[in-house]
Specification:
2 helices, mainly alpha, 73% helix, 73 residues
């Protein structure tokens, strides 16, 4: 799972969620799928955090405005 792209990880997560939502997966397989999903979720969150930091740095080099992730009203 380490060399998968963000998009591949999201697709794998969607597959896991679909399997678990069906409810017809044996308990042992469901637990393993859940664990894999948690690992994928953390990897995706780490990727998003790194991307946010990169964007914040790029934006601060252009102008002194930190990236908050939300638009101001």
């Amino acid at each position: 799972m380490e060399n998968t792209t963000f998009e591949e990880s999201i697709a794998q997560l969607e597959t896991i969620v679909t399997q678990l939502e069906r409810g017809d997966v044996p308990l042992e397989e469901a637990l393993e799928a859940f664990q894999n999903g948690m690992v994928l979720s953390k990897q995706c969150q780490d990727t998003l955090t790194k991307a946010e930091k990169t964007l914040t740095k790029m934006m601060s080099e252009e102008e002194e405005v930190p990236f908050s992730g939300e638009e101001e009203a």
